[in-house]
Amino acid sequence: MNVKLVVEYDGTAFHGWQAQPDGTRTVQATLAAAIGELTGETVSLIAAGRTDAGVHALGQVVNFTLAGPFAIDRLPAALNARLDPDLVVRSAEVVPQAFHARYSARARLYAYRIRQALPTRGAYQRQYVWTVPDSLDLAAMRAAGSRLLGRHDFSAFGRSPRPGGHTMREVLGLRVDLDAEAEWVTILVRADAFLYGMMRRIAGALVEVGRRRRPLEWIDELLDGSTAGLRPAPSQGLCQVGVEY
Prior knowledge:
CATH superfamily of the largest domain: Pseudouridine synthase I, catalytic domain, C-terminal subdomain
CATH class of the largest domain: Alpha Beta
Number of domains: 2
Number of helices: 5
Order of helices and strands: EHEEHEEEHEEEHHE
CATH topology of the largest domain: Alpha-Beta Plaits
Largest sheet: 10 strands, mixed
Structural class: alpha+beta
């Protein structure tokens, strides 16, 4: 049977999603080991997206095949009893054999959090935000984000998950929100798919514009393939929020 999981994790102590040959702690390897211990089967986990080291997830979607029977309603609690607190299975269900966590997805949603105008590094939630010492120009960031909407070649923003794969992606929505205290900024991006590193580079580009270091026209240059001045935002501010099917 084909099993779909929705998992949540704090990426701080993980070296990303993808299992590593040297046994480094990753989300994929940790979850697969727990499933194997519980079911006695060696499973191959497919994720909706491979997050980098330090990146978090609230709604990562995973699927795998079990050969033997198992009470799926018991799976989340049984797995969570075997997992450390920084990795949690939120739900489990049996899905059609054709379901594929990555290829069946219609859209992904990521959020990037920034704590602005803090003169020194912050202690509170430091592992979940990028602390930027400047006050950001949110109007400029929103204007820059609007230029990324639609279907573009995002080759300057990342690489394809497949060797030689195309770098065309469609950004379906982009918001820059500010909390009531005018301290926490959240960049929300919904796209059909993301390149490796794409969301962190989008966040990095918008912050450059928000810090008044780059003009709006720089975004157009990036979409034309230039990588001049483009740097990824730190990993800890990024969270994969959910996947749409």
